[in-house]
Amino acid sequence: MTDTSTTSQTTSTSTTGTSGATDHGFSVRPLGQHIGAEIRGLDLSRELAPDTVARIRELLNRHKALVFKNTGLTTDEEQSRFAEHFGPLTAAHPTVRFTGQSSSNVLPVDSESSVANKWHTDVTFVINPPQLSTLRSVVLPEYGGETLIANAAAAYADLPEELRGFAERLWAVHSNDSDYVRPDRVTSDAERSYQEQFVSSAFRTVHPVVRVHPLSGERGLFIGAFAQRLKILGVTAEESLDILRILQRHVTKPEYVVRVTWEPEQLVLFDNRITQHYAIDNYDRQPRKLNRITVAGDVPVNVKGERSYSVEGDSSDYSQIVEP
User: Over the stretch 73-106, which tens digit does the pLDDT of each residue have?
Assistant: First the structure.
């Protein structure tokens, strides 16, 4: 199918749903040259037709992050059903457990317990991080609380040729005991409990610094907070930190970032294999809750086809390994 969504005008797609249901045409509007597209007119609370799912996957491969407006989603069950169109679901988290949730697959991204204002890719400390993440708005502050999402493929492509070749030879150790769980300030017992649970079981996995996307073939910088200040194999700790800082600055260049402003009944779907994201802490810690459901992923590979490997921790209860 030809993708016309990168033109300056809004495009439309019409599909027929399963069981006689009809999904009306939906519009696609790019949000930037390198990342992001807004989708309207698609009811995600209903079962989607296979060709609709294929079109969404196609758009995701191109735009890396899709912002669905007026989705019709009101429950975790509906969000789970949408996410399952793309593969088996993971558990909510490898170490953090939540009570009172309707499903073991739902991770509440709640301002009462955590603030994810560090650039990261979800759960890269396990052998097969999620391939996709979905975030659904549940409770929103009066202002602020936007989410930034960065295109790690565009960042890789922007590197000088010599630096690209160097990065392709590197491997990084990702751990759940990282700066991600060391916020600048702890404001409640709930935050302290969340941090303690996050590191309650140790995970360390070695991933390529440049990962090849299994569907698009694109190369992207696979780093972020869980690799930050951790040793890159073959260099000193100080050199590791300097190299990671250089590469990370490319990932978060404004040209490669989309800023998502949250609205009611909104869902964001992003490709966790080739993006990073950051939750802006600019809302005075008003109540803010997004529910996250993730889709099980594959084991990352580098440009030579070499696979990531686990050093510590068993994540089999968190996620099955899927093949692309």
Answer: 999 999 999 999 999 999 999 887 766 666 789 9
- For 192, phi then psi, to 5°, come to -65, -40
pLDDT digits (tens, 9 = 90+) for 216-235: 999 999 999 999 666 677 77
Query: Is 277 a known active-site residue?
Result: yes
* Residue among 43, 110, 122, 271 flagged as catalytic: 122
Catalytic residue list contains 292: yes
Tracing tokens 């809750």 back to the chain, one arrives at 289
- Cβ pair 213, 274 in contact under 8 A: yes
**Which of the four pLDDT bands, split at 50, 70 and 90, describes residue 7?**
very low
For domain 11-312, is the CATH number 1.20.120.530?
no
Choosing from 34, 55, 219, 277, the catalytic residue is 277
Cα Dmax for the chain: 61
pLDDT tops 70 at residue 25 = yes
Q: How far is CA 134 from the centre of its chain?
A: 8
How far apart are alpha carbons 83 and 77 in whole angstroms? 10
Left if phi > 0, otherwise alpha if psi is -120 to 50, otherwise beta: which for 265? left
pLDDT of residue 36: 98
Q: pTM of the entire structure? A: 0.88
Query: Any idea where the domains of the chain sit in the sequence?
Result: 11-312
The distance from CA 222 to its chain's CA centroid, rounded to whole angstroms, is: 12
